Amino acid sequence: MKLLLLSKRILLSVFLATFLINYTFSVAEESPELKEAFENIELEYHKLRFYLHPDLKGELTTDEVKNRLVKYVEDLNFIFAKQTIRRFTFNPDSNLVFTLVQPHSAYFPGGGCDMPRSGYEIWIHAVLTDNPLYGTYGGSASFDSSGAGVASRLKWDAIHDRDSLTGGSDELKQYWRQLNHITHEVEHIFGAGISEYYNLNIVKDSTMVEPIHHINLFDPEDLFWGQRQDYWADPLTINIWDNNLVGNPTTYEDLMNTIGFANVTVAIINSSSRRCLIETLPDLNMTQIYVTDEITGLPLTDTYVSIWKVRSVFPYTAELIVDNITDPLGMVEFEWGGTFSNFNNLFLVKAFHSGYESKAKWASIFDAQEEKMVHQNNHFPVHLSLRPVTGIVSSNGTTVETNILKQNYPNPFNSTTTITFSLEKTAKVNIKIYNSLGRLIRILVNETESIGENKIVWDGKDDIGQRVASGAYFYQVHTDNFTSTKKMILLQ
């Protein structure tokens, strides 16, 4: 009888391995480039072990637990076989341990670049949830001194029988959370998403300098996430259960068909970099901002460029790190350094040029990784295209520039400077001056101004009549239908 059961398990393992390899190649058939890439594919296998708290067993027999865990591993293999070379082997007789203690040291001697790059094991450590009303939650990526990667401190409501779960049920929702959390942490173990994609789901622009540009994954018109749709089904970004970004899947089939990895996730998982972050990044000592004319594509020289490093979690603190103008190539180059974390994984660029609409653009550490790992570029360029402001003809036949804010003159200045702006119609105008930290220092105008060109002089003083210090300042013109901001330099 034992021999028969063993034979069945061997046949099942062979079937699953064959299925997953064939599935990978069937995906590759959709693209000649993918087909060529997969012709010489070499799969990477990782022994998978479960370390479970005894309370999770409940009234299940050990054999029932084993049978259910086999299906967890099947699903994990299915998810990773879609786009990656990673596969997981699991022997339920020898790789399942019920334990009251954390199984790993949570410490690996040396840094991430010293970890084993192949042949390491993956461990899954789960305990019974301490929040029975919510159920499954939690987890983190940890590492054992042996080099094993651990999806650690997962909190589960139960060990589920996948095949008995019905679409839309709370049981399937709990099972999917578990699978989503395991996948999320295993992605981290392979080196993807260090500092978390989900920390960029919502980020506030706290610079107080127009144009204001927030990030919101759940806004259908969000410019940042609208250009990164490959992230939407990645567990590092969000749980896809009933998520309207990806069609609200709530059945097992829809969930398994929808889940996927961002392009940069795939590239990192398929590499041997593991937790060696430096190997996944281009040379950030030469991070390049390029500004061009949106119509002609030509570089815009003498464009004012400001760059803030923004904390991606509350309170979204912004620190101005670059204040410069573009060279004849329309470029500003700067060094983006430091330790990358939730406090340093994102920067915001704003460009200001006379005769053009100002523009803001976010860039993240994950964009830099994509440049290196996907596009094989060892430099990190960020491109902004500015739209020229068009003109209209007034009643007397002269051309009136439509709601345009011009560059102050002179600039830089050391005593007074003139701010010039044009209105397409008479309007209530508010002009404010901010310092480089985004603090309001002067309300220069708050009254109705006439159609056409208007000029206002700033004497370099704040609202209480004191001269301000040398440095960069921003002036902002605001009407009911127009807001524009530009930068000026005061030299005492």
How would you describe this structure to a colleague?
- With about 500 residues, this protein is α+β, with helices and mostly antiparallel strands.
- It folds into four domains: about 1-40, no CATH class; about 45-200 and about 225-275, Collagenase (Catalytic Domain) (3-Layer(aba) Sandwich), CATH 3.40.390; about 280-385, Carboxypeptidase-like, regulatory domain (Immunoglobulin-like), CATH 2.60.40; about 390-490, Macroglobulin (MG2) domain (Immunoglobulin-like, Sandwich).
- The protein has helices at about 1-30, 30-40, 60-80, 170-190, 225, 250-260, 265-270, 365-375, and strands spanning about 45-50, 85-90, 95-100, 120-130, 140-145, 150-155, 200-205, 215, 285-295, 305-310, 320-325, 330-335, 345-350, 360-365, 380-385, 390-395, 400, 405, 415-425, 425-435, 440-450, 450-460, 470-480, 480-490.
- Helix 3 (about 60-80) links the parallel strand 1 (about 45-50) and strand 2.
- The longest helix has 27 residues, at about 1-30.
- About 35% of the residues are buried.
- The model is unreliable at about 1-30 and about 390-400 (pLDDT under 50).
Provide a quick synopsis of the model.
By secondary structure, the protein is an alpha+beta fold. Helix content is 21%, strand content 29%. A hairpin with a 2-residue loop joins strand 23 and strand 24.
CATH class of the largest domain: Alpha Beta
Protein structure class: alpha+beta
How far is it from the N-terminal to the C-terminal residue, by CA?
A: 92 Å
List the uncertain runs.
Answer: 1-31, 392-399
Average pLDDT works out at 88
Q: What's the story with the biggest beta sheet?
A: 6 strands, mixed
What name does CATH use for the topology of the largest domain?
Collagenase (Catalytic Domain)
In total, the number of domains comes to 4
Under the CATH scheme, the architecture of the largest domain is 3-Layer(aba) Sandwich
Measured by DSSP, the beta-strand proportion falls in 25-35%
Give the tally of β-strands: 24
- What is the helix content? 10-25%
Rg (C-alpha, Å) = 28 Å
- Coarse morphology: elongated
How many helix segments? Answer: 8
